[in-house]
Specification:
single chain; alpha+beta; Uridine Diphospho-n-acetylenolpyruvylglucosamine Reductase, domain 2; Uridine Diphospho-n-acetylenolpyruvylglucosamine Reductase, domain 3; Uridine Diphospho-n-acetylenolpyruvylglucosamine Reductase, domain 1; 3 domains; five-stranded antiparallel β-sheet; four-stranded mixed β-sheet; 10 helices; 25% strand; binds flavin-adenine dinucleotide
């Protein structure tokens, strides 16, 4: 186990915010966590688990011990008549894992291509895109309880997946006795990729690709390329323009609340969900309040998609976490004043 001090985190967060970890420990195996917990000072210290840093806002130097997860490895665990079960170490890059499954003839994750970050973080917020969520393909995961050092395995039900939500985002008292926020370090994730493969194409952008290309029945590889192409056009590449993807969750409201908002602005983008509630497009609400393209300090609202906040300071004068949060709060206030909706940030504020 290598303990590093005063480590710059700029390269480890997708916003490109300048901050330092007072102490950083790289976790490449369960043995590294055991060694960490055997050290009385490190064991007692608060800890923050870091993957690829694509869903965090750093508001200053990080005092808790940063555990940078670097557990590697990918393998086919099992093949049955009904599915392939594949596994990846938590430190593997998510997109590389998706590409690897397809290259090995195991389709099913193509709609989730090009989501930044690590495999280990994917269950934390139940990543989703283009009509598929992680929970749709999830089999199980291995994790270590940082309080006790014990390893454990969770299935989908135990992960309590929801929209950008899971047991890993809740403290014990909030969700159940089993809330695991700040407590679990995920080491390996297994996915169940069902046979026969069926494409998921309902999403508008994918339907558009179908019409443009004239391919009515695309392969998984074709969908993968379509998703990569759509995402490259819609979202800024964090290596070029720092950002954390969608900054706010799409809010869910009752049909009555939705009717009230339609009365204020009939153009509001909304989708009826199977459970009778209505999902509103947060990006549309922000755009309707005039935020698209605006800049406050070095934090900005992306010109092509109002849901994405970006680092306008670049390399020379990078945005601070304080500037990002000031802009986020100003957006929340104006959306609340105009529509009565409280937007909830998606990234973790550290
Ligand atoms: C351009 C862009 C586009 C994006 N598009 C999407 C999208 O389409 N859909 C979507 O769902 N998300 C999207 N995101 C958000 C982000 O990619 C995901 O949330 C991703 O899973 C974060 O992975 P990470 O490794 O970077 O996690 P980090 O940012 O490092 O961490 C995020 C959270 O997970 C916890 N965590 C990380 N690793 C572990 C672990 N091994 N064990 C326990 N806890 C852990 C951290 O403590 C933190 O709370 C996008 C982000 C960007 C920058």
């Amino acid at each position: 186990m290598l303990v590093e001090k005063n480590v710059p985190l700029r390269a480890y967060n997708a916003f490109g915010i300048v901050a330092r970890a007072q102490t950083l420990v790289r976790v490449a195996s369960e043995a590294d966590v055991a060694a960490l917990l055997a050290d009385p000072v490190l064991a007692a210290a608060p800890k923050f688990v870091l993957g690829g840093g694509s869903n965090i806002v750093l508001t200053g130097d990080v005092r808790p011990v940063v555990l940078k997860v670097e557990v590697m490895g990918r393998r086919l665990v099992q093949e049955t008549d009904r599915a392939w079960i594949v596994e990846a170490g938590a430190g593997e890059n998510w997109h590389d894992f998706v590409a690897w499954t397809l290259a090995n003839g195991h389709p099913g994750l193509e709609n989730l291509a090009l989501i930044p970050g690590t495999v280990g973080a994917s269950p934390v917020q139940n990543i989703g895109a283009y009509g598929v969520e992680l929970q749709d393909r999830f089999e199980s995961l291995d994790a270590i309880d940082l309080a006790t050092g014990k390893t454990f395995t969770l299935d989908a039900a135990q992960c309590a997946f929801g929209y950008r939500d899971s047991v890993f985002k809740h403290a014990a008292a909030e969700l159940s006795d089993f809330g695991l926020a700040g407590r679990a370090l995920i080491t390996r994730v297994r996915m169940r990729l069902p046979k026969p493969w069926k494409p998921v194409l309902g999403y508008l952008d994918l339907e558009r690709k179908r019409h443009e290309t004239g391919i009515a029945e695309p392969t998984a590889q074709q969908i993968y390329h379509w998703v990569c192409d759509i995402r490259r056009h819609k979202l800024p590449d964090p290596r070029v323009l720092g950002n954390a993807g969608s900054f706010f969750k799409n809010p869910t409201v009752t049909p009555e609340q939705c009717a009230d908002i339609i009365a204020r602005d009939p153009r509001v983008v909304h989708y009826l969900l199977p459970n009778g509630t209505v999902k509103l497009a947060a990006g549309w609400l922000i755009d309707a309040c005039g935020w698209k393209g605006k800049t406050v300090g070095n934090a900005g609202v992306y010109d092509k998609q109002a849901l994405v906040l970006v680092n306008r300071g670049g390399d020379t004068d990078p945005v601070t976490g304080g500037e990002v949060m000031t802009l986020a709060r100003a957006i929340q206030t104006s959306v609340y004043e105009r529509f009565g909706i409280r937007l909830e940030p998606e990234p973790v504020v550290v």
